[in-house]
Amino acid sequence: MTAWWHEPWTEKFAQLISSTRKTLGGSRKATQIVGHMAFGKTWKQIKADEDLLRHLARIGIDKEVRSFLKEGEEGYGGGDTITEEQLDLWPKSLQPLIRDIGRSAVHVPSRGEFVELAPDEITPSECKEAGNFLVQQAVDMDQRGRRLIELGDLGW
Q: Bridge partners of 107?
């Protein structure tokens, strides 16, 4: 199988995005471009290309499934913040910390999934693993951000 960026629909979709941006005066606002593509003339072109339509459906389905798995059936569509019922599962002494974490589920890399932040669902070592994963993400983002600032300071 070829890499996703070499699929024929990738080039076609890039052309559709560029064309839509031109129609919108070169807009770089994603919400404006997406809205025009989903509800404007571009939608007819997307619907006419079954491979492209399937690809976009896969992306959308993937996003929704991940959201569902992260938030759980009860929280799906309502955000991923911790509920009072979930908070009550924890000892009173830990509730301020759980409230600060503020998420109903956290990603545990070794499981390859989001795990409900509840004492009977996640282990202390998995909490540490999830925390280390997030800290590493933040370090990477911070490092990239600092390099971009440095690049801006240096000019070209």
A: 114
* Dihedral angle computed from the Cα positions of residues 110, 111, 116 and 117, in that order, rounded to the nearest 10 degrees: -20
pLDDT at residue 1 in the model: 46
Q: Torsion angle of alpha carbons 38, 34, 137, 146, nearest 10°?
A: 170
Given a cut of 70, the residues of the chain with pLDDT beneath it are: 1-7, 70-80
Any residues with CB less than 8 A from the CB of 5 and at least 6 apart, and which?
Answer: none
- 123 sits in the region (left: phi over 0; alpha: psi -120 to 50; else beta) called beta
Handedness of CA 134, 136, 142, 144 (dihedral sign): negative
Give the chain as a DSSP string: ---GGGSHHHHHHHHHHHHHHHHTTS---HHHHHHHHHHSTHHHHHHH-HHHHHHHHHHHHHHHHHHHHHHHHHHTTS-SPPPHHHHTTS-GGGHHHHHHH--SEEEETTTTEEEESSTTTS-HHHHHHHHHHHHHHHHHHHHHHHHHHHHHHH--
pLDDT value of residue 6: 55
